[in-house]
Amino acid sequence: xxxxxxxxxxxxxxxxxxxxxxxxxxxxxxxxxxxxxxxxxxxxxxxxxxxxxxxxxxxxxxxxxxxxxxxxxxxxxxxxxxxxxxxxxxxxxxxxxxxxxxxxxxxxxxxxxxxxxxxxxxxxxxxxxxxxxxxxxxxxxxxxxxxxxxxxxxxxxxxxxxxxxxxxxxxxxxxxxxxxxxxxxxxxxxxxxxxxxxxxxxxxxxxxxxxxxxxxxxxxxxxxxxxxxxxxxxxxxxxxxxxxxxxxxxxxxxxxxxxxxxxxxxxxxxxxxxxxxxxxxxxxxxxxxxxxxxxxxxxxxxxxxxxxxxxxxxxxxxxxxxxxxxxxxxxxxxxxxxxxxxxxxxxxxxxxxxxxxxxxxxxxxxxxxxxxxxxxxxxxxxxxxxxxxxxxxxxxxxxxxxxxxxxxxxxxxxxxxx
Length: 418
Fold this sequence. Notes:
This is Probable peptidoglycan glycosyltransferase FtsW. The protein is mainly alpha-helical.
């Protein structure tokens, strides 16, 4: 029996598409659906759905507040705009989550480099809003710091993971220098809230990378010294801290937010029935959590807090047995960025933290910031993707030096007892 001859196309003729290539897209989708953390994906999409209802509740207050004698905004202006941005955000979320782990790392590094470059340009060509120069207008206005957040976490995780190849590399000095440059550029805008958030991500990654206790103490001391310097050199930040420590007045934003939050009781006044939100500045962005409290009740606020905690816990459980240090650090950095921003916003609304002008991720109205947070969530899903048929014999946390030392000590103690 003669073997079948391979097909050789003539000049100008294409080879027929094989079934393998015709089904490659559906095969990729099947692989993605099998490997992606569906629980985490569901929690993210559910938070976005809650955010849609919350923006619908807050839109009338913000639209009326921002309307002028010449321009009257419809009550649902921000709601319809939010739907358009959310549609783009979901596409970004799914697209980023389909990246391989290596491609997600490359995207994060390129994003960090590009946004750091834009951050350098902000003081020179940035667009000023409410006394802060944080935006760049390239046909679409966006904050480079928002898109820098996921890139920053991934880039620092990549640099810190070099320690496994060469323990003598000065990775701590490199990431600390990067943090210093980012913090300086952010304070030139000024943007104290983002500086604190980036500092928190940096600290968590440095802690997980295995820095000694002595160095951690030095880092904490340096952070406290930096905050003291900011208090004396940054007037707006000093005023907000003084107002927070002094209890504020009935006309402060944070006090208005707390009153709005508590006005609805446990079950809320009902959709579009809230009254206090009409006096609240930035009801659709910074203080949307208070609007949720007034119209949907404190129980719904508690549900949102639990959902953020569930996202954090889900990621940490997913990373607990991860055997790749970069994956562990990048996942921890991204969830720190999303969870840290969420709880800063919530604490501000509860009058437990000075006002920072920070939105509630996945819930607040946002233009480019919605795309940025969806990109961060998508990269988090991509980095935590896992083949369910592969088992890991080495728990991830034991690969991190502090936990590794702890594991060795525990084995030694068990040997002595036996």
